[in-house]
């Protein structure tokens, strides 16, 4: 599976990564090589196999509906890059 | 002091041969003197370590001490530690001090262990050589031109170089076992769900598992006794009773059935590595074990499957690093897109970005079935192989890694050849089984690891089997020159 | 050309839990920004979700209320996209295996016919936070208090054919979620948000037209107007030679129009996959039984019962079962008074009018159900006339005590003493000889004059039946 420049640009956008134009070729070749490795999977017929999402055959545990967390805003926001009036700030979002 | 086992250290601390503060200072001094050569620590937490050591000495005095009280340990820098930076080996978290402790950290603190610092690692645990760390590569104490393995390379090097008594690690595709093998120490990755993942920064959630890197199986048993157990904060934590791992160490292994998968001894395995592994198997035969040849027919596909499943999960797990609430944020973002794209491109290294992109690709519309779903199906086949094998045998053995440690820089330009390092370790993660690596005879002075794979929640047997080997041999006691 | 409208609704209803769906952070409306966002809600590194049992219980209750299948095994998936109000970069939702499968509800159309609307599925998911666009020196502020609030997304089949049907369906769902106590349904606070998928097609054509999705409508009136506008827009567009584009649109209530949301250059690719931090949710018979053990009578069943047991008209029964509180109120009045029809008239008439006029909620009504029942008993036993009863109601509403106290203090007791009424009538006959003459010469209509005079004389308190009887007797002489 060979990926080209425009594939990389598309994927990088989907993953929100700023890839410099001069890096694109390199990523295209690296990712293509990885996909070639992955293509070994094609050798196996899996039409009658159930997918396995999880190693353990357990069911989801349920938590009682009780509030257990108290306000730690100052603590959590002490590691935030930019806040004001208790809000996290991001460049203006236009809707 | 640095060559003593945890049992010996615990006994000495109780007899007041030396205090925990003295022991801690001893290790801090070794780190200060020797680690500049290895770069195995990202952060040394001398002040908080000494405070913890004093508290441990109080506990020892008042008789409330457990086996780990006052023992200096190190945490892989993937475990969140309140008050000590948790970088995950990434520029993204270079400024990140977690507002809470991981469950593993909490449990070991409660047991009285003293945290010397946080160890270096491949960025976000993605790598097999410790070269992807933002903090630079770790060097193998057996040969400083070689890699220590990864991703828990810092923990492996620190334990091998006697810079801490024991350390934590995590293993998603071999990240405890492979560096343990390359550094000549003992590493155990327990069954998926055995140790809580709460507070352990996620790489691939369905594969990640915390474990121990130690100089012996006995030391590992002491640590695992405290780390393992159910945690209600982790939905994937197993509510299965934890046996006493130390108690089980001395059980005999006569009649133990060892499976040797033929797929683990084929092309790609260094013949000298194969030879010392075979010698170790013969040692087990001498100890009364029975050898059974088995087959894990789908295991050659574990690397391709892993490089779909792990990147898919990582692409989603690492989406939270967006420069908004914590972590690296680019300067003067023009707009929201720019904030995301530059913060993430600056914060993540090349290997992490590769895996995020592969993950985004295999999950994207039109490719999901061909990649992700297909991989999950083969994952089922791989797990079934093991299930059949464990109907025949008690443990499975083989090499941990196809070669000894390779030179730093050798494989950085070739991701695929790097990935193939984990060819023997990845299948256990896909199946969720416990695995170990213990040192056997070296090749050209470089350590080699024997991998032991057990059935689900059979860690006690793994540690017992490893301990019996170490009882009969001395390979695990060897120390790299200059770090004795 | 004749056009047919096709509408499907997606309704996000906030579940009335105490804590969030995957964390122990509390849920209270209007808290200071980010004070109810814990480490899990903020998506800090290393945190993990654990599912709230009550959210699952609520979903099951809803499923049972619309006769839907409850999945014995359902899966949480991650919906991946970047947005600042989505801290983890993905929303935990259900994709391939939702907890609630196919179900249905019935709506009553204006002409009285009943129509069945299919519900495709209902799934659990977490809400996102809020972006505040007021100016913070060119920045947008992010409040993550709402992040992780449990939602049940209820997806309908494209079964509705007019804005009115869509509103009737939305109201029905709103009624059900409130009846079964899984949501407060508060639309101002965003607890009940509707997305409408709207398309048009020529009458007789089977294939659906291209649809537009109108996002985040939070009132029934706006829903109706938004769909109405959108339908006209699409018809005009097609008739003018254009084509409808599949897109997301917003309804602007001020301008009464929908407009396109600035579409990103690429279509969203959400890369759904099963969330590896969460395991399959298994709902066994025990869980199911516990979840629906205290499920109340549903609106449709209650309406049918009101018609059968109390002899109410379909209209009245519908009105009085609009909410569980109102139905309970009515039943108390009916039971305590023993007069269901009078009870229905009073509750839907006087009581509702007073509540509407004063904008008081039923649970804060100054006239309790037992007080109203007391009044009806006094009407029934003749203590107060139907006409003066309204005055008694007013007295009770204004804090004058129960019916007996108001009747007493305002002297509204009906006069039933025949002698007293006769004396009054005798005086009126004596004072109006001309009118008496007219009546006796056959002008029957003048009879009303005498009734009016008598009632006036008695201050409205004379028993009307007695007045009639005595007047007739006395005037005939």
Automatic annotation (TrEMBL), chain A:
| UniProt keyword Acetylation, yes or no | no
**One family name in Pfam for this protein:** GatC
Entry EC no(s): 6.3.5.-
Q: Which GO terms describe its biological process?
A: glutaminyl-tRNAGln biosynthesis via transamidation; regulation of translational fidelity; translation
Its biological purpose:
Allows the formation of correctly charged Asn-tRNA(Asn) or Gln-tRNA(Gln) through the transamidation of misacylated Asp-tRNA(Asn) or Glu-tRNA(Gln) in organisms which lack either or both of asparaginyl-tRNA or glutaminyl-tRNA synthetases. The reaction takes place in the presence of glutamine and ATP through an activated phospho-Asp-tRNA(Asn) or phospho-Glu-tRNA(Gln).
Q: How does it assemble?
A: Heterotrimer of A, B and C subunits.
For this entry, the protein name equals Aspartyl/glutamyl-tRNA(Asn/Gln) amidotransferase subunit C
Q: Which organism is it from?
A: Thiorhodococcus drewsii AZ1
The family line of this record is:
Belongs to the GatC family.
Gene3D superfamilies cross-referenced by the UniProt entry: Glu-tRNAGln amidotransferase C subunit, N-terminal domain
> What keywords were assigned to this record?
ATP-binding, Ligase, Nucleotide-binding, Protein biosynthesis, Transferase
Q: Which InterPro entries match?
A: Asp/Glu-ADT_sf_sub_c, GatC
Higher taxonomy: Bacteria, Pseudomonadati, Pseudomonadota, Gammaproteobacteria, Chromatiales
Q: Name one GO molecular function term.
A: transferase activity
Domain of life, per UniProt, equals Bacteria
Question: Could you tell me what reaction this enzyme catalyses?
Answer: L-aspartyl-tRNA(Asn) + L-glutamine + ATP + H2O = L-asparaginyl-tRNA(Asn) + L-glutamate + ADP + phosphate + 2 H(+); L-glutamyl-tRNA(Gln) + L-glutamine + ATP + H2O = L-glutaminyl-tRNA(Gln) + L-glutamate + ADP + phosphate + H(+)
Can the keyword Transferase be found in this entry's annotation? yes
From TrEMBL, chain B:
Example of a GO cellular component annotation carried by this entry: glutamyl-tRNA(Gln) amidotransferase complex
User: Which domain of life does the UniProt lineage start with?
Assistant: Bacteria
- Which residues constitute the catalytic centre? 76, 151, 175
Q: Which UniProt keywords apply?
A: ATP-binding, Hydrolase, Ligase, Nucleotide-binding, Protein biosynthesis, Transferase
GO biological process assignments: translation
* Catalysed reaction equations from the record: L-glutamyl-tRNA(Gln) + L-glutamine + ATP + H2O = L-glutaminyl-tRNA(Gln) + L-glutamate + ADP + phosphate + H(+)
Claim: Ligase is one of the keywords in the record: yes
Protein's job: Allows the formation of correctly charged Gln-tRNA(Gln) through the transamidation of misacylated Glu-tRNA(Gln) in organisms which lack glutaminyl-tRNA synthetase. The reaction takes place in the presence of glutamine and ATP through an activated gamma-phospho-Glu-tRNA(Gln).
Family note? Belongs to the amidase family. GatA subfamily.
What HAMAP family does UniProt report for this protein, alphabetically? Answer: GatA (MF_00120)
Name assigned to this protein: Glutamyl-tRNA(Gln) amidotransferase subunit A
Q: Which organism is it from?
A: Thiorhodococcus drewsii AZ1
| Lineage of the species this protein comes from | Bacteria, Pseudomonadati, Pseudomonadota, Gammaproteobacteria, Chromatiales
TrEMBL record, chain C:
Q: Does the keyword Transmembrane helix apply?
A: no
Segments forming domain Asn/Gln amidotransferase:
328-475
Q: Which GO terms describe its biological process?
A: glutaminyl-tRNAGln biosynthesis via transamidation; translation
| Entries under InterPro entries matching the protein | Asn/Gln-tRNA_amidoTrfase_suB/E, Asn/Gln-tRNA_Trfase_suB/E_cat, Asn/Gln_amidotransferase, Asn/Gln_tRNA_amidoTrase-B-like, GatB, GatB_C_1, GatB_Yqey_C_2, Gln-tRNA_amidoTrfase_suB_CS
Q: Which UniProt keywords apply?
A: ATP-binding, Ligase, Nucleotide-binding, Protein biosynthesis, Transferase
Gene3D superfamilies, A to Z: 1.10.10.410, GatB domain, N-terminal subdomain (1.10.150.380)
Does this entry carry the keyword Protein biosynthesis?
Answer: yes
Q: Name one GO molecular function term.
A: glutaminyl-tRNA synthase (glutamine-hydrolyzing) activity
Question: Which reactions is this enzyme annotated as catalysing?
Answer: L-aspartyl-tRNA(Asn) + L-glutamine + ATP + H2O = L-asparaginyl-tRNA(Asn) + L-glutamate + ADP + phosphate + 2 H(+); L-glutamyl-tRNA(Gln) + L-glutamine + ATP + H2O = L-glutaminyl-tRNA(Gln) + L-glutamate + ADP + phosphate + H(+)
The top EC class is ligase
Q: What is its EC number?
A: 6.3.5.-
Q: Subunit notes for this chain?
A: Heterotrimer of A, B and C subunits.
What PANTHER family does this protein's entry cite? GLUTAMYL-TRNA GLN AMIDOTRANSFERASE SUBUNIT B MITOCHONDRIAL AND PROKARYOTIC PET112-RELATED, GLUTAMYL-TRNA(GLN) AMIDOTRANSFERASE SUBUNIT B, MITOCHONDRIAL
Report the family membership: Belongs to the GatB/GatE family. GatB subfamily.
As for what it does, the entry says: Allows the formation of correctly charged Asn-tRNA(Asn) or Gln-tRNA(Gln) through the transamidation of misacylated Asp-tRNA(Asn) or Glu-tRNA(Gln) in organisms which lack either or both of asparaginyl-tRNA or glutaminyl-tRNA synthetases. The reaction takes place in the presence of glutamine and ATP through an activated phospho-Asp-tRNA(Asn) or phospho-Glu-tRNA(Gln).
Query: What protein does this entry describe?
Result: Aspartyl/glutamyl-tRNA(Asn/Gln) amidotransferase subunit B
Organism name: Thiorhodococcus drewsii AZ1
- Protein's gene: gatB
């Amino acid at each position: 599976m060979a990926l080209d420049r425009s594939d990389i640009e598309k994927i990088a956008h989907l993953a929100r990564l700023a890839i410099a134009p001069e890096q694109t070729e390199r990523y295209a070749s690296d990712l293509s090589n990885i996909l070639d490795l992955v293509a070994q999977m094609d050798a196996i017929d899996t039409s009658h196999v159930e997918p396995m999402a999880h190693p353990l055959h357990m069911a989801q545990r349920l938590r009682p509906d009780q509030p257990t967390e108290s306000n730690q805003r100052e603590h959590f926001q002490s590691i935030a890059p930019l806040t004001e009036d208790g809000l996290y700030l991001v460049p203006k979002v236009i809707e | 002091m640095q060559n003593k086992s945890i049992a010996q250290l615990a006994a000495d601390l109780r007899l007041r041969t030396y205090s925990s503060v003295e022991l801690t200072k001893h290790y801090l001094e070794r780190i200060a003197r020797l680690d500049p050569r290895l770069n195995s620590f990202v952060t040394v937490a001398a002040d908080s370590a000494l405070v913890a050591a004093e508290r441990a000495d109080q506990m020892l005095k008042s008789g409330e001490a457990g086996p780990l009280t006052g023992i200096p340990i190190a945490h892989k820098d993937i475990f969140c530690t309140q008050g000590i930076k948790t970088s995950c080996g990434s520029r993204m978290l270079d400024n990140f001090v977690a507002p809470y402790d991981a469950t593993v950290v909490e449990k070991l603190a409660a047991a009285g262990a003293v945290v010397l610092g946080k160890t270096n690692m491949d960025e976000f645990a993605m790598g097999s050589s410790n070269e992807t760390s933002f903090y630079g590569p770790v060097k193998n104490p057996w040969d400083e031109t070689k890699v220590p393995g990864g991703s828990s390379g810092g923990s492996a090097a620190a334990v091998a170089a006697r810079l801490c008594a024991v350390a934590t690690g995590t293993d998603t595709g071999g990240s405890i076992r492979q560096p343990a093998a390359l550094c000549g120490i003992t590493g155990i990755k327990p069954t998926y769900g055995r140790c809580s993942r709460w507070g352990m920064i996620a790489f691939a959630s369905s594969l990640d598992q915390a474990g121990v890197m130690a100089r012996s199986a006995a030391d590992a048993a002491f640590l695992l006794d405290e780390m393992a157990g159910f945690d209600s904060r982790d939905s994937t934590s197993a509510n299965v009773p934890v046996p006493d791992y130390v108690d089980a160490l001395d059980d005999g292994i006569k009649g133990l059935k060892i499976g040797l998968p033929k797929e683990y001894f084929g092309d790609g395995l260094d013949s000298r590595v194969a030879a010392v592994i075979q010698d170790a198997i013969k040692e087990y035969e001498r100890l009364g074990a029975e050898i059974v040849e088995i087959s894990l027919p789908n295991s050659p596909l574990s690397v391709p499957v892993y490089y779909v499943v792990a990147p898919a999960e990582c692409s989603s797990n690492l989406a939270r690093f967006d420069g908004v609430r914590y972590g690296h944020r680019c300067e003067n973002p023009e707009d929201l897109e720019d904030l995301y794209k530059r913060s993430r491109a600056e914060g993540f290294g090349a290997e992490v970005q590769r895996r995020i992109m592969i993950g985004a690709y295999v999950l994207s519309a039109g490719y999901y079935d061909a990649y992700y779903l297909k991989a999950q199906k083969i994952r089922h086949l791989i797990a079934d192989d093991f299930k059949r094998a464990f109907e025949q045998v008690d443990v499975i053995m083989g090499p941990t890694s196809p070669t000894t440690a390779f030179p730093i820089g050798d494989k950085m330009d070739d991701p695929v050849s790097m990935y193939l390092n984990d060819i023997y370790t990845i299948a256990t993660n896909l199946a969720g089984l416990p695995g170990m690596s213990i040192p056997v005879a070296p090749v050209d002075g470089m350590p080699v690891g024997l991998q032991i794979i057990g059935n689900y929640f059979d860690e006690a047997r793994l540690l017992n089997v490893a301990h019996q080997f170490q009882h009969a041999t001395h390979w695990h006691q060897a120390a790299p020159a200059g770090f004795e | 050309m004749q056009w047919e409208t096709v509408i499907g609704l997606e309704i996000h209803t906030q579940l009335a839990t105490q804590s969030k769906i995957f964390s122990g952070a509390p849920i209270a409306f209007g808290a200071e920004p980010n004070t109810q966002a814990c480490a899990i809600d903020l998506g800090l590194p290393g945190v993990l979700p654990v599912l709230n049992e009550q959210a699952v219980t609520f979903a099951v209750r809803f499923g049972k209320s619309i006769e839907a299948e409850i999945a014995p095994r359902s899966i949480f998936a991650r919906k991946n996209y970047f947005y600042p109000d989505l801290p983890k970069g993905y929303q935990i939702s259900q994709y391939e295996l939702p907890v609630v499968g196919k179900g249905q509800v019935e709506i009553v159309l204006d002409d009285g016919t009943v129509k069945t609307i299919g519900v495709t599925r209902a799934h659990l998911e977490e809400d996102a936070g809020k972006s505040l666009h007021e100016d913070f020196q060119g920045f947008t502020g992010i409040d993550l208090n709402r992040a992780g609030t449990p939602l049940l997304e209820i997806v309908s089949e494209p079964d509705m054919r007019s804005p009115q049907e869509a509103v009737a369906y939305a109201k029905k769902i709103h009624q059900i979620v409130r009846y079964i106590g899984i949501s407060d349904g508060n639309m101002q606070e965003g607890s009940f948000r509707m997305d409408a998928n709207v398309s048009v097609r020529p009458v007789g054509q089977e294939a659906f037209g291209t649809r537009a999705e109108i996002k985040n409508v939070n009132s029934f009136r706006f829903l109706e107007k938004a769909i109405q506008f959108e339908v006209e827009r699409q018809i005009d567009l097609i008739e003018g030679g254009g084509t409808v584009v599949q897109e997301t649109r917003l309804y602007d209530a001020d301008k009464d129009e929908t407009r396109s949301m600035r579409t990103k250059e690429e279509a969203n690719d959400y890369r759904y996959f099963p969330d590896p931090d969460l395991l399959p949710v298994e709902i066994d018979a025990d869980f199911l039984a516990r979840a629906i053990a205290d499920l109340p009578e549903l609106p449709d069943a209650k309406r049918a019962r009101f018609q059968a047991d109390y002899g109410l008209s379909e209209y009245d029964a519908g009105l009085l079962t609009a909410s569980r509180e109102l139905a309970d109120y009515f039943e108390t009045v009916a039971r305590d008074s023993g007069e269901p029809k009078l009870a229905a008239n009073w509750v839907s008439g006087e009581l509702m009018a007073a509540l509407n006029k004063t904008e008081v909620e039923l649970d804060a009504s100054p006239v309790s159900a037992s007080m109203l029942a007391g009044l009806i008993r006094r009407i029934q036993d003749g203590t107060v006339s139907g006409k003066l009863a309204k005055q008694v109601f007013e007295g009770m509403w204004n804090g004058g005590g129960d019916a007996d106290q108001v009747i007493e203090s305002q002297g509204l007791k009906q006069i039933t003493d025949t002698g007293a009424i006769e004396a009054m009538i005798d005086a009126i006959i004596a004072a109006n000889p001309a009118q008496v003459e007219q009546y006796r010469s056959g002008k029957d209509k003048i009879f009303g004059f005498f009734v009016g005079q008598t009632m006036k004389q008695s201050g409205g308190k004379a028993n009307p039946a007695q007045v009639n009887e005595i007047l007739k007797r006395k005037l005939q002489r």
